[in-house]
Amino acid sequence: MNGIQLHHGKLWFAGINDNWKLAKFEVQEIHEALDDVKKYITDRPETKLIKMIYPPLDSVTAAIQLQNRVLFKSSFISLTETCNSCHRVTQHEFNVITIPTSPPVTNQEFKPVLQ
Prior knowledge:
Layout: H1 2-16, H2 20-40, H3 54-66, H4 69-89
Helix pairs in contact: 1-2, 2-3, 3-4
């Protein structure tokens, strides 16, 4: 889940900077990480609840496809709230995810590259 949290933060900064290619990449990374959790961590009860994250993740993906920053922000907030709902249901309520206030890495540009 730490990897997902990193991609979640990077996704936020890509989206608010209209870097739609990077945002699309980060959503794909989250999907791959969730697929790995479902495939390799089958013995944990919270794995069964991962499906709750897909509707808000699909909304984020749609906002990226539309290149709509307003829709991106609202769907990202919903995604973050869903992460926290899952944490509460799985008795991980101590793990509260927030909208990032600073980039999770300092060695990456989040603005789109001008071509």
